[in-house]
Amino acid sequence: MQLRHQIVALAILPLILAITLITAFTTWQSTTLAQSSIDTFERNLLKAKETELLNLTNLALSAIKDVYDNAGSDDERAKEHVRQILTTLDYGQDGYFFVYDYDGNSVVHPRQTFRPGHNWLDLVDPDGDQVIANLIAKAKEGGGLHQYKWEKPSSGAIADKLSFAAGLDKWHWMIGTGVYLDDVFAQTETAKADLKQSIRRTFVVVTLIAVPSILVVFATCMWITLHERRLADGKLKLLTQRIIDTQEEERARLARELHDGVSQNLVGVRYAFDLASRKVRDSAADAGAAIDRGIEALNGAIKEVRDLSRELRPRVLDDLGLTAALTSLANHFEERTGISVSVDSTGSETLKPEASTALYRIAQEALSNVERHAGASRVTITIWSTKGRVRMSIADNGKGFIKHAGSANANRTGGLGLRNMQERMAHFRGILIIRTDENGTGLTAMFPKSANATRRTSEAA
Q1: Which pTM was predicted?
Q2: Domain end residue (candidates: 180, 214, 244)
Q3: I need a surface site. Which of 53, 79, 277, 377 has the fewest CB within 10 A?
């Protein structure tokens, strides 16, 4: 996966995950609360139905109380009177009272006239419930509620029914009445449908909020990615151009050094030895002096080559370390320019070789700037270590230079040399700080612990 794709994924995936989790939690909580409310609503409706059944049963018992209380256990006239009263005590299309004796024989059933005179003790509903037997059992227990399935008179369909059965023990009768629960379940289903509709609306609202948000984040990430990529491409082009310019400048300098220094000296050596050769052939008295002059010119050429080699890559840096390389650089600089240079180095031995090279090149560039621009008479190079972090400071007593307003580091000070210093430090995640005024210029390079060759784990990072 490319970097820009990783950035987009890291930006969008957490947002999608958060929205999904929030939506799931909100939906779960809403469903739980709504289901709890629906269950409470259903229980309240059933409780109301139970209260209604108790009131209706008490009403029927009150209607037959006088007849029942004044009758004997075998008073057929009283029983007939009670049958007539209960047959007429219906309410609505589906409300009626029924009576069975304790043996399961139907005594009163206003809606199903085929039942009286027959025994229904073994009658079962579609769920296998022994309806009449269970109602009689409730009556014998002193009265109670029983739910079962029964044909609804108004529609002829089988529906859930809740009945209350009471006992007329003197006659061994069970009297009961019931209400159908399909209206309760219908209201419950309506509430559940409203819940589903509410959840769908919630999903729609969340989608309308989440999808544009994700699109905005995606568009923003893409814009930032493209913008950063353009900036990176631009910086890469500038860096490439600077590298090319630096290479060309270094090649031009090497060409001048070779042409003006080494080449001229070698030409002088050739002429000196040609002259010495002629004098030897002619047995001239000053032939030895001519040879000495040639040897002296050859030594100058060798010195030029050594100086050029030292500038390209000093062997002492690889063989003896940074301190020795800086000391040699300072001595050579002082000898060439007459500017006093002091080196105080402690703690640089822990650096990686490439980090030591970076400090050497920074010091080399800084001395070059001092020679060309500072007008200084003294330069101090100090290397030390603070909590395992190597620091290098280079200070001169020159005239300083003008920085851009508000700048405090190398990336705002301009100049190819200073930019190269800053880029060398950035490679190691280091910091380059430059201070300049009329009293001189100070440069401080600070490396992190990661630039050390051997990191000491006992110290705090």
Answers
A1: 0.44
A2: 180
A3: 377
